[in-house]
Amino acid sequence: MDNALKKTVLRLFTYGLYAATTKQGDDVGVMTVNWLTQCSFDPPLLALAVEADSHSRQVIEASGTFALNLYESGQRELAGSLGRTFRKHPEKITEVAWQPGPATGSPLLENALGWVECKVTSSLPTGDHILFVAEVVEAGLNREGVPLTLKETGFKYAG
After folding, report:
1. pLDDT tens, 58-87?
2. How far apart are CA 41 and CA 48, in angstroms?
3. Which residues contact residue 10 at a Cβ distance below 8 angstroms, ignoring those fewer than 6 apart?
């Protein structure tokens, strides 16, 4: 297979960008994610792929919960900031205003378009990621707007 061609084609897939947040006790995880899809109407389930070696993956597994905060078009800098690795930037959650979610306690970003809180129902190792399937247990809308997309940012996240 031509690896350069494969990357080019995979980068044509359309993705939104989201801040995935989670909290277990004093341990907080936040990361920018894009491999997310709804996979059931009833119950409402989402599938989220998280890098296996990430700090947030460990917190999601410990808490069994996470929230997804929808970035707004134009929030490229915020998505980039929260996408930095925890190992190098453990303070990144302190750089944004947030409140604990009513259902899970996961951080809900005040400047996100909206959010959903989720409880993990299953997980599966998938290569260098873990796929979490989670039920949406609460949702909120902060304001109307256009969601940020991977294409808008110019970020390249595909193998």
Report:
1. 999 999 999 999 999 999 999 999 988 888
2. 16
3. 158, 159
Secondary structure element (H or E) that encloses residue 123, with its range: strand 114-126
- 10 Å CB burial of residue 24 (0-12, 13-18, 19+) is middle
Give the whole-angstrom CA distance, residue 21 versus residue 70: 11
Neighbours of 47 (CB within 10 A): 17
Write out the H or E segment, with its range, that includes residue 80.
Answer: helix 76-82
Instruction: Annotate the chain with DSSP letters as a single string.
Output: --HHHHHHHHTTS--B-EEEEEEETTEEEEEEE--EEEEETTTTEEEEEEETT-HHHHHHHHHSEEEEEEPBTT-HHHHHHHTS-TTT-TTGGGGS-EEE-TTT--EEETTSSEEEEEEEEEEEEETTEEEEEEEEEEEEE----PBPBHHHHT-----
Q: What average pLDDT does range 52-61 have in this prediction?
A: 96
The answer to whether the beta carbons of residues 33 and 18 sit under 8 Å apart is yes
In CATH, the architecture of 16-152 is Roll (2.30)
